[in-house]
Fold this sequence. Notes:
By secondary structure, the protein is an alpha+beta fold. Helix content is about 30%, strand content about 25%. The chain has seven helices and seven strands, in the order ααααββββαααβββ. The strands form two sheets. Strands 1-7-6-3-2 form a five-stranded antiparallel β-sheet. Strands 4-5 form a two-stranded antiparallel sheet. Strand 6 (about 160-170) and strand 7 form a beta hairpin. The termini are far apart.
Amino acid sequence: MADVKQDKDTRVDIWLRWLKNNPITSVVIVAAISIGAAGSFYKSLPDEWKCVKCLIRPSTQYEGLPNNGWVYVGYLQKADIKRWAQPSKVDIVTMSDAPDRNYPIRAGDIVRPKMPLPQVIIDFADTKEENVLSPPPELVGVIDPKKDYTGRKLDTKTNYLVNDVSVAAFPGRDPVVWLRLTPWAAN
């Protein structure tokens, strides 16, 4: 009796054999691999391609708000106004071909914000776009977010055309730089 071999399968062996031969298991495994590959591919896409909802129905977040307005971008050095006192809040994507450049940035340059920047038009809450051509330091000394912010934030994925540059120098301080920007159509 000791030499008798028992060929009984255990319950685990039966269960594994059933899983190997089951078409449902094959479908689940293939689906899991496909979903994993699609997820990996999706993560590698640029952010603007990931928003399927945005492609179908564009966001109405800024509908009715002006495309044209002012943003604060930084300070220039008192001693040398052709240099930033600290890194600016925008990167120059394309410099204009104009030969005169009094400041590190000029009208005609194409810029991209490094961070979302609030758009400012002085007294926007009451007069809407009436003051769009006037730089903020020309009209007020202090910006009031409730009255002067338009509600639009310039995003870091869009290029903007510099329409105007305003540099305001206050006694004993670094000059402040404001840019009037519009979205650049050649994005």
